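Subject: Re: docking follow-up (zinc ion)

Dear J.,

Thanks for your patience while I sorted out the input files. As discussed at Tuesday's group meeting, I've set up the holo structure prediction with zinc ion included as the bound ligand rather than trying to dock it afterwards. The sequence and the ligand SMILES I used are pasted below, so you can double-check that they match what you have on your end before we go further.
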Amino acid sequence: MVVSAGRLVGDKRSLRCAQRHPNPPPTTSFPGQAVPAEEPHPARFATDTNHVIAKRIVAEAERTGRGIALENLRGIRGRVRLRKPQRATLHSWAFDQLGRFIAYKAKRAGVLVVQVDPAYTSQACSACGHVDRNNRMDQATFQCRSCGFAGHADWNAARNIALRGVAGWAAVNQPNADRRRVA
Ligand SMILES: [Zn+2]
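The structure tokens for the complex came back this morning:
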């Protein structure tokens, strides 16, 4: 599952401002003139957004009877694209927090969570397994140099994470099975 954190942040901005300022301070501007909105506190913002994202992911997993595979959160941090002001203020704790929220809400809902090896999820082909830095044409585009499989880079990476989650879960449930990681 691919999550667009940036979009959710944008959607909540006006709501948050309205909640914090039920009675807007008086201004000297003329009616109809744009008044600069106060920036919400980025940490509270990230926490609220993480709750929304985690809730949606767990609800979708519960609804469809699936588990959730999570990769090392620094890997997610490297792929998520944020606009400049957020890039400067959001740190890895926000992504660690998202993982904790997902794990907590999933446990409460009885949804299975599997941690997977984050290595090369963005460079590996989710169709044939071929790993090549050049598979990643640019930030958004994946095209396999070996089999030609192509798609959005985040979607391909998410497929890799899902495949590893399934393999990891199978290994846990079959103690005698080969536990080697599937790339
Ligand atoms: Zn391939």
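A couple of observations from a first look. The chain has two domains: 1-13+40-112, 119-174. The two ends are 18 Å apart (CA to CA).

Let me know if you'd like me to rerun anything.

Best regards,
T.
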